[in-house]
# Entry
Amino acid sequence: MQIDWSLKPFGDLTPQEVYDILQLRNEVFVVEQNCVFQDADGKDAGSWHLQGRRGGQLVAYTRIVPPGHIYEEASIGRVVTSPAARGTGAGKELLTKSISSLYDVCGRGAIRIGAQLYLQKFYEAFGFAQVGEPYLEDGIPHIYMIKS
# Structure
């Protein structure tokens, strides 16, 4: 089944879309990864939100963050695919769409991400390179990566 993509600034999201986004982020980042953290971090309002839906169900999501909002560079964060969509190529399609969407709304420039360490090879396949040493975030090893 094809994924339908939409990109919206926070103020254009419907209450149902906000609920679906928070539900998916909590399903994966809090429950599946057994990580208690403050997901609602005050950065959503100034960001763009890329949603991928199959049959109306949210299966993939990222937050596109303009430069200066979190990092000096633009950023892609809260990268998540539904457990039901894994192994279908949805994650690769999500990151491809995220990069092109970021360029559309922020212009072409460097992209910084804070990636879970185990996904380093995945992000390298999209042109990201590690910068700095690994660090722990909420008990999970992460690395900063830049796509020039």
Q: What stands out?
A: The domain at 4-112 is CATH 3.40.630.30 (Aminopeptidase). The mean pLDDT is 92. The helical segments are 15-32, 90-106, 120-124.
